[in-house]
Design goal:
The protein is globular, with a radius of gyration of 28 Å. Helix 2 runs antiparallel to helix 3. By secondary structure, the chain is mainly alpha-helical. It folds into 4 domains: about 40 residues, no CATH class; about 160 residues, Tetratricopeptide repeat domain (Serine Threonine Protein Phosphatase 5, Tetratricopeptide repeat); about 110 residues, Collagenase ColT, N-terminal domain (Glutaredoxin), CATH 3.40.30.160; about 120 residues, no CATH class. The chain contains 20 helices and 7 strands. The longest helix has about 30 residues. The strands form 2 sheets. It has a 5-stranded mixed sheet with strand order 3-4-5-7-6. The chain binds zinc ion (ZN). The site of zinc ion (ZN) has 4 residues, from helix 14 and helix 15.
């Protein structure tokens, strides 16, 4: 146990101590970054240049008065003018820049608002109104970047705002939320610690700290955090928190004796013994996929201090943890979980197929912010892990031809992830349809078009609008094209 700024950090085991020290270092680094960014001069905007000219002209006028007094030989008058110079010029210039900044903010030009208000705040650093406006502008600019999928830039924009409101728990938790949304869980930890130091009964911060520990495989700590969140948090989140606790308890029961192996971009967890050699093979496969599929999707997730969690189970462990049906062999739910059986443990091709499928889910999760429709997610995952065969083709046509009376048939019907896949016949039909759509998408469109489609969904567009805007097709046209190009194998 150790205490960091008044909040107890549970570092019971030696590796946890290293973990805690790591997040403290990350915290200090982010503070330094904040300081530098705040002092960075604004240089870009024409408007700002004209505002600076206005300021300089005003200052020159005042200097001229001092000079004239000196030339006339009146030292006392010159001194009086000189004393007047600084205290009066600052607030007026600050007011002017502040009102310009507010206008930019109202026009939703948040970047411009930030640079203008930064200037105002430099002129009048003690002004609470300007401080509040600058904080709001930075926050809005960051929100906008996050919505555009530029979350790392958003965090860079927002961290300097901590200098304006160092102990604001809501701001700290928002930054942590952004870090977690791009799977930089360990980087979120110092912000959550600071938030809890300022407001120990902050349920949301405890909940997110649980997410950080959970992602990092510290399941017992995650459970304690979520229990705390349940005590402190708002009542509408209770069922979500209880679900997380129940899930983590199931995992802890199975994984308590697992060993952890961080190498490359992945952190593998598995029971020792014969799983050791499988872990080594899977880790090599994943490292290859990181580059190969990263190239296909234009995304190489940065894992500065949070490697991607991958857990290997035997069949029994897999069912106990995931509670899914027996025929499912792997899944991605924020972590990659693979079922290792006597049938696949020696089969590199099968392991690769399984790992590729789940790794595509992870990439799509990051690119579409978790909002990808079912068919797009499964369609691309299958395309990148399997080969389309004559068998797929005939199943596809069987589905289109005969299942229409029994099941929803359009891709738009598969838009929402509310499908009941417990009927194996229905599940198979849905997956084949998704595969056909994924295959068409990849064969017909460029990598940029596919990733633009995903980022458009991330930005909140409906799938039908995204198809129209990015690919120039209605849902119906897209569906017809899929059918036409999947009429044969190959
Ligand atoms: Zn899948």
């Amino acid at each position: 146990m150790t205490s960091v700024r008044g909040i107890q950090v549970r570092c019971a085991r030696p590796n946890d101590l290293a973990w805690c020290a790591g997040i403290r270092r990350a915290s200090i680094r982010s503070k330094l970054g904040a300081y530098r960014t705040l002092l960075k001069p604004a240089t870009d905007e024409m408007t700002l240049a004209s505002e600076t000219r206005f300021f300089i002209r005003r200052m020159l006028k005042r200097f001229t008065r001092v000079l004239v007094a000196l030339v006339l030989g009146s030292l006392s008058l010159a001194s009086a003018y000189a004393q007047e110079l600084a205290p009066t010029a600052g607030p007026r210039q600050a007011d002017y820049l502040n009102s310009r900044g507010v206008r930019h903010f109202e026009d939703q030009q948040y970047d411009l608002a930030v640079t203008t208000l930064e200037q105002a705040f430099m002129v009048a650093p003690g002004n609470e109104t300007i401080r509040g406006n600058l904080l709001r502008a930075r926050w809005k600019a960051a929100e906008q970047l996050h919505e555009e999928g530029k979350t790392e830039e958003a965090i860079e924009k927002l961290v300097p705002a901590l200098e304006l409101a160092p102990e604001d728990p809501t701001l700290l938790v928002y930054i942590a939320t952004l870090q977690i949304s791009i799977s930089h869980h360990r980087l979120a930890a110092p912000f959550l610690e600071e938030a809890l130091a300022a407001k120990p009964a902050f349920g949301d911060a405890w909940y997110l700290l649980g997410e950080v520990h959970y992602y990092d495989g510290m399941l017992d700590h995650a459970i304690l955090d979520w229990e705390q969140a349940a005590r402190e948090g708002p009542s509408e989140n209770q069922s979500r928190v209880q679900e997380r606790i129940a899930k983590a308890r199931r995992e802890l029961k199975v994984e308590s004796g697992f060993k952890s192996d961080e190498r490359g971009h992945f952190a593998l967890r598995f029971s020792s013994g014969e799983m050791n050699s499988v872990a080594l093979t899977v880790s090599r496969i994943l490292e290859d996929l990181y580059y190969e599929l990263g190239g296909q999707f234009g995304l190489f997730p940065k894992v500065p201090v949070s490697p991607i969690p991958v857990i290997l189970y035997d069949a029994e462990q897999f069912t106990e943890v995931t509670e899914v049906q027996e025929h499912i062999g792997a899944l991605f739910d924020g972590k990659i979980r693979l079922k290792i059986t006597p049938d696949n443990r020696q089969d590199i091709e099968k392991l690769r197929q399984m790992a590729a499928h789940e790794y595509v889910h992870l990439l799509i999760y990051l690119l579409a912010g978790g909002k990808s429709p079912f068919w797009l997610n499964e369609g691309l995952a299958q395309y990148h892990s399997e080969t389309w065969t004559q068998s797929h083709s005939s199943r596809y046509w069987e589905w289109v031809g005969s299942a229409s009376a029994k099941y929803p048939v359009t891709l738009a019907d598969l838009d929402e992830d509310k499908l009941n896949l417990s009927d194996p016949e229905f599940a198979e039909a849905v997956y084949v349809k998704a595969f056909a759509a994924g295959r068409y998408l990849r064969n017909r469109f460029t990598r940029e078009e596919v990733t633009n489609l995903l980022s458009s969904i991330r930005a909140g567009r409906k799938m039908s609008d995204a198809l129209q805007e990015v690919l120039g097709l209605t849902y119906e046209q897209f569906e017809i094209q899929v059918a036409q190009t999947n009429s044969s194998a190959g």
